[in-house]
Amino acid sequence: AQTVTQSQPEMSVQEAETVTLSCTYDTSESDYYLFWYKQPPSRQMILVIRQEAYKQQNATENRFSVNFQKAAKSFSLKISDSQLGDAAMYFCAYGRDDKIIFGKGTRLHILP
Amino acid sequence: DVKVTQSSRYLVKRTGEKVFLECVQDMDHENMFWYRQDPGLGLRLIYFSYDVKMKEKGDIPEGYSVSREKKERFSLILESASTNQTSMYLCASRHTGTVYKAGYTFGSGTRLTVV
User: Fold this and answer.
1) Do B99 and A42 touch (CB under 8 A)?
2) What average pLDDT does chain B have?
3) How far is B50 from chain A (nearest CA, A)?
């Protein structure tokens, strides 16, 4: 069965600095999708970035980028120029077939 | 603005009550999902539905049932609420065949407390 592991329950970063959130996953499949979701205090889950496993190029969305290492089954999220609005719970997720499997989350604190 | 709407943001129920959590989406999505979110455990799938009147068990279906009589509405039912069902419940939906390109669209959650 597929699993998603986020080893950092909480992290803090100074405003304007860069932070990297870690995620590893386990699968025997070769074709799948990976996601990072953000859940701010409003509780609304927001898709931050997605990566298709067959694409070698790392996905980028403005200040958010990923480091996708398929062989290592690693999918980390880098947030550049951290802003106060980035404070949230971040979930790494694996998607294939009919379901998306989520990690346990990393709570990110932004220090002013 | 397309959305997934959960009828209650906060809910307090008594042990043994039958509880209905409602979710409505306006995107004509075929697939709908109910997750439970607990601190330190992330999101766990309770039930999902591929289409009207169809349902599949997720990872933690015990103590729950679902109803999908109309495409836009997916209800989660707690047959006899217990205190260990106190949690945040998230509804999500997506189109079949989008192959996760857009991920899921989520509601804003219902925080249920069973006393």
Assistant:
1) no
2) 91
3) 9
